[in-house]
Amino acid sequence: MSEASTLEVRDLKRAVGDRAILTDISFTVRRGDILFVRGPSGVGKSLLLRALAYLDPIQDGTLLLDGKTPEELGVPQWRTQVTYVPQSRTQQKGTPSELYFQAQHFKAQRGRPRGDLPAIIAALGLEQRVLNQPWVELSGGQAQRVALAICLALKPGFLLLDEPTSALDHEAAIRVERLLRESKAACIWVTHEDAQVGRIGGRALQLPLGTEIAVDHLVSTESPQLGPDEDSNVFNNETAKTAQREGLIEVAVQQ
Ligand SMILES: Nc1ncnc2c1ncn2[C@@H]1O[C@H](COP(=O)(O)OP(=O)(O)OP(=O)(O)O)[C@@H](O)[C@H]1O
């Protein structure tokens, strides 16, 4: 299918057993938007993201990509465009390169544009060799960034980010923020950090009520100064190498 431009959530309800966690959650996100998801620990932020990726069943409500439900679109197609990046270390066996390579065989991923994975890895401040190290040998912060890099390289229209900088130091977090801002994807982004929201701006969905608030676009004075070479937009840097890696994954780190 062509790349979707709008993700719409109508009256979503998510329960665990007979306990309703989220009720009447409605919002719309368009390509390029950033929507932060805020709320206290345990309120249901991760459950919301998993529901949006159709990884868990929803108890009521409707999810629509350009007016089509996951069933109408096909779940693999849905997850190709709405990709969940989990909070914790992936349980994948093997190496990130193997995962990225295997993903080329998913039907829903064939023929789609790709980002330049090595360029993304570099922009995240990682050495290329992490791509060939077993996942279990990566630190939490390395694994978190590599998983994000793979998801970014797959160019989904909608990224579901579950605390994507939780294991990172400040400089690494700033690099992640910059890449995500440069990416054309919409970001639905769980964070507990007010400063992060202030640096990036956008909108915020406050749980449990699901009310939306505008976020003042504050410029952080803490951002590390990066050299001009590091400041290039990797998403405009498609290289011949990328063609060799064409293909890829349904949900890179789906568990
Ligand atoms: N698989 C599960 N089985 C039972 N209860 C669950 C399951 N997953 C989540 N929950 C419960 O649902 C609620 C919401 O969990 P969720 O992980 O979405 O919270 P959260 O807002 O992301 O929290 P945090 O900010 O701490 O990551 C919690 O009370 C949690 O215990």
From TrEMBL:
SUPFAM superfamilies documented for this protein: P-loop containing nucleoside triphosphate hydrolases (SSF52540)
Domain ABC transporter: 7-234
Molecular function (Gene Ontology), one example: ATP binding
Keywords: ATP-binding, Nucleotide-binding
Gene3D superfamilies reported for this sequence: P-loop containing nucleotide triphosphate hydrolases
Name of a matching Pfam family: ABC_tran
PROSITE patterns: ABC_TRANSPORTER_1, ABC_TRANSPORTER_2
Top-level taxon of origin: Eukaryota
SMART domains: AAA
Name by which UniProt lists this protein: ABC transporter domain-containing protein
Organism of this sequence: Coccomyxa viridis
Lineage: Eukaryota, Viridiplantae, Chlorophyta, core chlorophytes, Trebouxiophyceae
